[in-house]
Amino acid sequence: MNLFIEGFQQLFQISNFIAMNIGLLLGMIFGAIPGLTVILCIVLFLPFTYSMGAIESFMFLLGMYCAGSYGGSISAILIKTPGTPHATATMLDGYPLSQRGQTHKALNMALMASTFGGIFSAVVLLFLAPQVSHFAQKMGTPEYFLVCAFGLTIIAGVSGKTLTNGIIAGALGLFIATIGLDPMTSNTRFIFNNINLYSGFDLVICLIGLFALSEVLNRSKRSEKIGKVSLHKEDPQANRITPGEYRKVARPAFISSLIGVIIGIIPGTGASMASFVSYDRAKRMSKTPEEFGKGSLEGIAATETANNAVTGATLIPLLTLGIPGDACVAIMLGALMINGLTPGPKLFVDHGVTMYAIMLGLIFVNLFMLLQGKFMTRIFAKIIKIPIAVLTPVIVIFCFAGAYSVKTSMFDIHVALVFAVLAYLLNKLQFPVIPVLLGLVLGPITEENFRRALILSDGSWSIFASSPISLGLLAIIFLSLFVIVRGKIQENKKDKQHVPT
Amino acid sequence: MRKVVMSMIVMLLLSSGLFANGQSEGPSAENWPEGPVTIICPWAVGGVADMVNRKAATFGPEYLGVPVLATNELGAGGNVALTNFLKNQPNSENLIFGAEGAFSIAPNIDGADALHFSYDDYEPIINLYSSIFVLTADASMGITDLESLKAYGKGKKVKVAVNGVASSEAFLAMALFGELGLDLELVSYNGANLALDAAAKGETAFAISHQSQARGSVEAGVLNPVVMFDEAGVDNDIFKGVKGVGEYGYSGYFRNRCFILARKGTDPVVISKIRDAYLSILDEPEMVEFYNSLMIEVDPLNTQLINKHIDDVTLIVQSNR
Fold first, then answer.
1. pLDDT at residue A306 above 50?
2. CB pairs below 8 Å between A and B: how many?
3. Which of A198, A323, A408 lies closest to B76 in CB terms?
4. Predicted confidence (pLDDT) per residue in A218-267, tens digit
């Protein structure tokens, strides 16, 4: 209790709150602009933390991390261009809702859900970190693989009308993910002696091509007037989230927060997987699944709570075990070490006050994100008033800048363009694009954990059923597959009944 | 369709115009540096090399008279940045970090055909730091030295977690276990922290990592240090008393070193300016303290000693690949 109070005292310095709010603003802007990423934001502003103390620098970085996670949804909702990979799931419902003239509602729901997910995970971090960490320690390579395999079943949920096309698109993503070095043997695969293909394709670059640039190509095809403003009539009444709607999203938001926390503690999985898994679960559990993909608030709430619930959860293995779950958190690990804090089991013993200050700070980061977001939403919503002739080239320039910034390489800009053409062709041939992204996200971690598990077990497949957690995950996977197959059979029966005789 | 193709062409032209790279030509040796010096770290932001680069860069104006910009250029474990660096001319104000991974390991494993550079394309200036790797074991096994490791590993396949099977850690494991006559199975993890975690929860028996990475688990008693991959042990609080591989009479060890490189043909006067500046930076008390917190050592090797390091590691890699 003393640590808690002292942590509170340490946190309540004006410099911590200034750093937090500057971080939030930067993160929101970088997350919202297609092409610019949270990681780029953190990298650019990292040197400022070198002159800060541990708490101040962590508040600054956490501000960017959390707001960046939310910010990705803004462009996804407004211009159908996700600012982050995990915002792709938000785009599925956010953009259609915006198209119906309910932009403010979509943005507000994303903000509220992000805040809820963020605070949920911060509370878990604050009160249950040791227990969650203990649970995380019970999960190993085989369990990680099973979580990834379960993630792959989501492809069915985002395949649109044709499951086969979705599976083919997912397989394409999985194939593209194999390009580069073999994760287990370091042998090269499909690199054609090109050094730029050595480490495969960066997910951000693929995202820029698959969604942002391909949308530009689609726009050019639609022959919209050069001065057209993509503004839909906004009805202030329809843009208010009603108490009934809040009640409706409460359950998916809570479940998605749990999913976000569970996936967040698994290193390497990240917010994208949490978003898609939550979206899929919310759709399956919804009383109105037919609304998903057409502007469902439940869909937005599920994805946004999940991806922000990941932010606090990734800090659990970082602070308790010294394991960074993603690239952003890896940078935070460096920030801790610079301040003489060694992440690991003894961190809470040696630096308890600082740790409590950071964990309490995460709650305030999310609260200030809500306040800043409320203000910024009004400004961001004006983006849709910009004529397409102005907006499109700006998006393209940001996309190129973003692609270039990942490795300061022209090669990556060309890769983004290739992915844009790929997405354009897939759309034209009526193959969904999102399964490609899922394949790219899940492919490397699924393969890596699968093969590593078999190395650990000397080739025995029994390793995948060797613990209660594994057995539980296997049961969930089989249940999901059963539901998908049964749903497909019922759909086919319905289609046959509707065929005119 | 025509509009789509036109859009693509416009985008290509736009991208080429916006981000076209020019060659960086260097000034004469006497006037060097004429502008800010850029030091490229070809590895991840937040890693040890990146942190050292950024910290050292803050002393740039004091010792080089110009700002020093610490940047990162990622891809292919540093090989993309090292390839792109060849666009620079001698005496360029752009410098880059290098390590044994690019010059001793990468040319000797699968994928070497894709490398478009060699060690001879660069001029090593100064080694910035050395890091000694440590072999740790799941504490519940009670293995604390090479004798107990030998006894444990007799007649069984010993699984060691490493950060990639083409990493320095992997070759150190192969060299040591080869000399011990033990059957080794490397298990590749995506990061040293995950490799350590694997050993801590008993997925593998052992892990190899930098000292700073293992520190937390060793302090908590989850992992036991077994041996340091150096001639002798180290003199710090955490790993004091742990013997070096060399003390057991084995030769399969090397340190991880990170050195500054200039483009081949850079004037010795320029090299000397950079070396002197960095020798002064490394002497800064703030820098010394920073190194201690990261558990790395100031080890300002000159060109000849860096060359020897590359040759020594190459031999170990070639005999274990």
1. yes
2. 195
3. A198
4. 877 765 554 454 545 666 677 788 999 999 999 999 999 999 999 988 87
Strands B157-162 and B183-188: parallel
A49-68 per-position pLDDT tens digit: 877 888 999 999 999 999 99
B158 vs A468: CA distance, rounded Å: 26
Per DSSP (E only), the strands in B177-266 are 183-188, 206-210, 223-228, 256-263
> Chain B residue closest to A419 (CA)?
B8
Rounded Cα distance, B137 and A397, in Å = 51
Query: In this complex, do B15 and A406 lie within 8 Å of one another by their Cβ atoms?
Result: no
> What is the pLDDT confidence band of residue A42, given thresholds at 50, 70 and 90?
confident
- Please state the domain count of chain A: 1
Range of the domain at A95: 2-138+186-384+394-418
* Mean pLDDT on A79-101: 89
Token pair 């839909």 is found at A232
ipTM: 0.81
Tokens of A172: 């394409």
The second-level CATH assignment, the architecture, of B35-129+257-319 is 3-Layer(aba) Sandwich (3.40)
Return the bridge partners of B40, or none. B71, B96
Which residue intervals of A339-459 are DSSP H helices?
Answer: 347-350, 352-380, 388-407, 410-428, 434-456
**Residue A417, helix vs strand vs coil:** helix
How large is the C-alpha radius of gyration of chain B?
22
Selection from A33, A76, A78 nearest residue A397 by Cα? A33
Q: Is the peptide bond before A500 cis (omega within 30 degrees of 0)?
A: no
Cα distance between residue B78 and residue B230, in whole Å: 25
Please state whether beta strands B133-138 and B122-131 pair in parallel, antiparallel, or not at all (unpaired). Answer: unpaired
Residue A431 included in any domain: no
The answer to whether B274 touches B126, Cβ cutoff 8 Å, is yes
Q: Is A199 helix (H, G, I), strand (E, B) or coil?
A: coil
Distance CA A197, CA A415 (A): 10
Buried/exposed B49-71: b ≥16 CB within 10 Å, e otherwise? bbbbbbbbbbbbeebbeeebbbb
Residues of A in contact with B14 (CB under 8 A): 393, 396-397, 400
DSSP line for A259-300: HHHHHHTSTTTHHHHHHHHHHHHHHHH-S-GGGTTS--HHHH
| The CATH number of domain B133-248, selected from 3.40.190.10, 3.40.50.10190, 3.40.50.10090, 3.10.580.10 | 3.40.190.10
Q: What is the DSSP letter of A185?
A: T
- Candidates B2, B5, B8: best to mutate against A (most CBs of A within 10 A) is B8
Mean pLDDT of B166-183: 92
Tell me phi and psi for residue A276, to 5 degrees. Answer: -70, -40
Q: Are A209 and A415 in contact (CB under 8 A)?
A: yes
B256-263 and B94-99 beta bridge pairing: antiparallel
Residue at A121 is within a domain: yes
Beta strand extents in A76-223 (DSSP E only): 180-181, 188-189
**Within-domain flag for A464:** no
Closest CA to A399 of A90, A117, A127, A79: A79
Among positive and negative, which fits the CA dihedral A409, A410, A413, A417? negative
Domain ranges of chain B: 35-129+257-319, 133-248
* Residues contacting B186, CB < 8 A, separation 6+: B159, B160, B162, B165, B170, B173, B174
Among A37, A42, A181, most B C-beta atoms within 10 A, so best to mutate, is A181
Residue in B closest to A266 by C-alpha = B194
| pLDDT above 90: residue A455 | yes
Residue A232 confidence (pLDDT) = 55
Q: Is residue A348 part of a domain?
A: yes
Q: What is the pTM of this model?
A: 0.83
Percent of chain B scoring above 90 in pLDDT: 57
